[in-house]
Amino acid sequence: MNGLVSPLEARVQSVCLVILATVATAASLYWLRPVMIPFVLALFIALGLDMVRNQLVERARVPQALALPATLIGGVLALAGLSALVSASLGQLSANASLYADQLEKLIQQTLAILPGPLQEAARTLDLDTLTRIPVSSVTSMLGRTTSALANLLSQSLLVLIFVLFLVLGGPQAEAHEGTWGKVVSRVQTYLLSKIIVSAVTGLLVGLTLLILDVPLAMVFGLLAFLLNFIPNIGSAIATLLPLPVVLVDPNVSSLAATLAIAIPAGIQGVMGNVVEPRMMGDALDLHPISILMSLIFWGMLWGIVGMLLATPITAVLKIFLERFDGSRPVAELMAGRVPVSTSRSAEAAPDPNPPA
Q1: Would you say 59 and 177 are in contact if contact means Cβ atoms under 8 Å apart?
Q2: pLDDT of 60-102, one tens digit each?
C-alpha cells in the first residue's frame, strides 16, 4: 500500500513538476537571451521568407533553383534597408531626446496651470519641479530603453542573418509542412503576413499625416508606429500618444494641427487594428486577449521590448503544441478563452439512454 500513489497525490506531483519546469525554463530563457533572441527572430524571418519563396514558385512560376536565391537576396536587402532606416531614426530620436523631454515638461506645467484653484493650491504645496520631473524622467528612460534595445538588436543583425541563411537553406520544403509543424507554419505565416501589411500601412499613414501637418520627428513617429504595432493593443496606444508633447507644446504647430495630429493617427490605428486586421487574420491565432496580455507581460519581463514584439507568435506556437497532448489540451483551451469541460462531469450530466421503467 505504501508504494501506491493516489490520483490526487499524482496530480499534485504533476502540477509541482510543471511549475518547477516552467520556472527552470524561464530562467534558462533569460540567461540565454543573447543567443535566443536572435535565433527566435531569425526563425520567424525564415518562416516569412519561406512563404515568399513558395509564392514565387506556385504563383509566379519561378523555378525552385531561382526562387531561393531571389528570396534570400530580397530578404537581405529588406533587412539592410530596415536596419538603415531604424538606425537613422534612432539617431534622430537620440539627438532630440532632450528637446522631447523639455516639451513634455512644458506640457505638464501648462496642464497644472489650468487646473482649478484647489488643485493648483495642492500642486503648489507639493514640489512642482518634482511633479514635472517624475514623468519626464520616466518617458526619457523609456525612450532610452527602447532606443538601446533596438540598437542592440541591430548590432546582432549579422548573427540574425547567419541564422536566417542556415534556416532557409536547411529548412523543409513546402510538401514537408504537414502535421503539427505544418499547422505552426500556416498560423505563423498568416500572422506575419497580416501584421507586416497592417503595420506597414499604419506606419506609412501615420508618418505621412504627421509630415503633412509639419510635426517634428514625423517619420520617426511613423517608424515607431510601425514597430509598436507588433505589440497588440498596448503598442498602438503608445504610438498614438508619443507625439503628444511635441504637437501640443511646439509653437510652430497650430491648435488645429495639434488636434489633427492626435485624432487622425488614433483613427488610423482604430480602423487598421479593429477592422482591417481582424478581416485579414481571422482566427489564425485563436488566442484570448487576456492570454495575449499575459504573454506580453511574461516575455517583456524575460526579453524586454523585443520579447513584447515576439510575444504573440511565440504564444500561438506554444498553444499549437499544447493542443497535441491530452494532458495539456485544457491549458490550450484556456488560452483560447474556452473553458474545458471535464469528461467525467460530462458523463455525469449526460442523460441515461436506458432509463428505468
Answers
A1: no
A2: 788 877 888 888 888 878 877 777 776 676 666 666 666 666 7
Degrees, nearest 5: CA angle 155-160-164: 160
Chain-centroid distance, C-alpha 283: 17
User: Residue 352 gets which letter from DSSP?
Assistant: P
- Integer Cα distance of 313 and 161 in angstroms: 20
Tell me how far the alpha carbon of residue 98 is from its chain's centroid: 27
Greatest Cα-to-Cα distance within the chain, rounded to the nearest angstrom? 89
The C-alpha cell of 157 is what? 543583425
Q: Rounded to whole angstroms, how far apart are CA atoms 88 and 94?
A: 10
Query: What is the C-alpha to C-alpha distance for residues 350 and 357, in angstroms, rounded to an integer?
Result: 18
Please give the single-letter amino acid code of residue 317.
V
Contact between 98 and 105 (Cβ < 8 Å): no
Is residue 352 within 8 A of residue 304, CB to CB? The reply is: no
For CA atoms 78, 219, 157, 292, give the dihedral sign. Answer: negative
Sketch the domain layout of the chain as residue ranges.
23-171, 190-282, 285-338
187-225 pLDDT per residue, tens: 888 888 888 888 899 999 999 998 898 887 788 788 888
- Which grid coordinates belong to 283? 482566427
**Closest to 48 measured CA to CA, from 82, 25, 18:** 82
Find cell 500556416 and name the residue. Answer: 186
Strand ranges in the chain using DSSP code E only, listed in sequence order? none
